[in-house]
Amino acid sequence: MSKFVLVIGAGQAGLATGYHLRKAGLPFQIVDAAGRVSDSWRNRYASLTLFTPRQFSALPGLLHTGNRELYPSRDEFADYLQSYVAHFDLPIRLDSRIVRLVKEATGGFEAQLQNGERIRATHVVIATGAFQKPIIPSTASQFAPDVVQFTGDSYRDPSQVPAGPVLVVGDGATGRDIAAELSAGHTTFLSVGKPRKLFPERILGKSAWWWLHWSGLMQAPKESRLGRYMQKADPFPDRDRNLDSLARNGVRIMPRLMSAAGSIAQFSDGSATEVVSVVWAVGFRDDSSWVEIAGAGGSNGSFVHTEGVSEIPNLFFVGRPWQRNRASALIMGAGPDAAAIVKRIVCLVTAPWP
Fold it and tell me: Could you tell me the superkingdom of the organism this chain comes from (predicted)?
């Protein structure tokens, strides 16, 4: 079989992979289920801005325009991804959802599209990202049917949310953003879990990301002592989103949600409140059900890999959180992680095919 790389997913991870495959001179195609590049970004909540400023929110070979110290919006970054495809003329097939990936007896792969078509490849890079299916706790079923429920995936803006008290569950960056904007027009409760570590947005006039990048902290290996500490702490920048600031702006901070009964939310300290809507912002999980290859996925549905390399020969990943380091979950990590994976593929294609 002629060497051919199939890249699944046309987000930042897939495009960075395409960039490096093009540089390496390998034949490849990027396939995505969406109708246009960057729809996964445009379909998120409207007020979303990236974690990192423009100087750290670019893919290899193409810088962002605009103030490098400021944060790109959701739509700006989506436009950037579209311009990236055009700039490098990357081969992308859209409206092409892959519903089944299998390993062939010859050692290659066959991907089946939703329309029944099949694509064969010698190497596959799964770059679908870590935001596949929103996690909805079992507590959701305890609310009455007339309590309107959203996820971090289905929530777009406050106009969707009916009048009355709203509970946001989950105090990561998404939950805090949503609670902050809802508080302008709704009585808003934010249910928090474990204590979160936030770092200052700027240090000595420089973005905290500048310090983290140039100090080498963002590149600390996953299994290093520093890497393990950063995984446990999981800090994110404080852009006026600490709990004290949220409280000053009207968000009512509540402890962990324990249960619900009808329209009543009950918390770990024994308190309770009535709500008319709930936004679940407790994270996402993988969907590996379409990869029908034994050993590719774990029992919990997550993908199994070591620094993006599967135990399945010629199967790889880019865009996994902590794939190699903290940067892996961010735009700044897509290029280096893709480069490392493509380097491995280049080494493999020089070997005889079975």
Answer: Bacteria
